[in-house]
Amino acid sequence: MSAKVAVIYYSSTGNVHQLAKAVAEGAEKAGAEVRLRRVPELAPDAAIDANPAWREHVEATKDVEVATLDDLEWADAYALGSPTRFGNIAAQLKQYLDTTGGLWQQGVMADKPATGFTSAHNANGGNESTLLALYNTLHHWGSIIVSPGYTNPVVYGAGGNPYGTSHPGGAGAPADETLEAARYQGERLARIAARLSDES
Ligand SMILES: Cc1cc2nc3c(=O)[nH]c(=O)nc-3n(C[C@H](O)[C@H](O)[C@H](O)COP(=O)(O)O)c2cc1C
């Protein structure tokens, strides 16, 4: 059986958006049906306009559908992405996660595989801590965390982060090696989700 994968992310200036698209491509390559969704922007226009790259990204991704709670009900597996904000996930993604109390109570996200990806400006600027912070919620959901580990050499090509694909945004747009690792992460998530569905 093919899996249904929801790739849900927040991105201000495009790095995490690039990773999200690559994760989605990888899941599709593994035969999954994929929903690529951005969470709502919460920042005021004045903050967005103060950073031309942020405004440009908001305009460029207007057509990406906005995540709803239905996406979590629909999917068999989740890939969640956020930029690093002081070593933590962005408030925009956190706000979305904080609307899932009702679904959590019903066990909607329980037993489903989930994974995370991120981008900090600096290679050591908090990528791992952001993913671990994201995974706190997934533990509470009762999801099955499917981090890439070192299960494929492409992980090393992207800097060797076993917690999830990460991209130091200060180095420019994600390199092909990083996108390859993100595709692998999506493919692996979809493959494991399909396997779990077959067993249920
Ligand atoms: C409020 C704020 C906090 C940030 N905190 C960190 C940080 O702790 N470490 C870091 O390396 N970069 C930090 N950054 C930079 C972003 O994580 C980085 O630019 C990232 O690549 C943005 O991803 P995006 O292009 O998908 O929005 C911060 C940016 C903002 C606006």
What does this structure look like?
There is one protein chain. This protein is an alpha/beta fold and 200 residues long. The protein has one domain: Rossmann fold (3-Layer(aba) Sandwich). Helices cover 46% and strands 16% of the residues. It is built from 9 helices and 6 strands. Strands 1, 2, 3, 4, 5 and 6 form a 6-stranded parallel β-sheet that branches. Helix 1 crosses helix 9. The protein starts with a strand and ends with a helix. The site of flavin mononucleotide has 19 residues, from helix 1 and strand 4.
Please give a quick description of this structure.
Belongs to the WrbA family. InterPro entries: Flavodoxin/NO_synth (IPR008254), Flavoprotein-like_sf (IPR029039), Flavoprotein_WrbA-like (IPR010089), FMN_Rdtase-like_dom (IPR005025). The chain is α/β, with parallel strands linked by helices and 200 residues long.
Features:
6-stranded parallel beta sheet; alpha/beta; binds flavin mononucleotide; NAD(P)H dehydrogenase (quinone) activity
In CATH, the topology is named Rossmann fold
User: What is the first-to-last residue Cα distance?
Assistant: 11 Å
Question: Low-confidence parts lasting 5 or more residues at pLDDT below 50?
Answer: none
Bound molecules: flavin mononucleotide
Cα-atom radius of gyration: 16 Å
Strand content: 15-25%
Number of helices: 9
Extended strand count = 6
For the sheet with most strands, the description reads: 6 strands, parallel
Structural class: alpha/beta
- The sequence of SSEs as H and E is EHEHHHEHHEHEHEH
Instruction: List the quaternary state of the chains.
Output: single chain
Integer count of domains: 1
Q: Determine and state the CATH class.
A: Alpha Beta
Looking at the overall shape, the CATH architecture is: 3-Layer(aba) Sandwich
Q: Compute the average pLDDT.
A: 97
Can you tell me the CATH superfamily?
Flavodoxin domain
User: What portion of residues is helical?
Assistant: 40-55%
Global outline: globular
Family: Belongs to the WrbA family.
InterPro entries: Flavodoxin/NO_synth (IPR008254), Flavoprotein-like_sf (IPR029039), Flavoprotein_WrbA-like (IPR010089), FMN_Rdtase-like_dom (IPR005025)
GO cellular component, one term: membrane
Domain Flavodoxin-like: 5-190
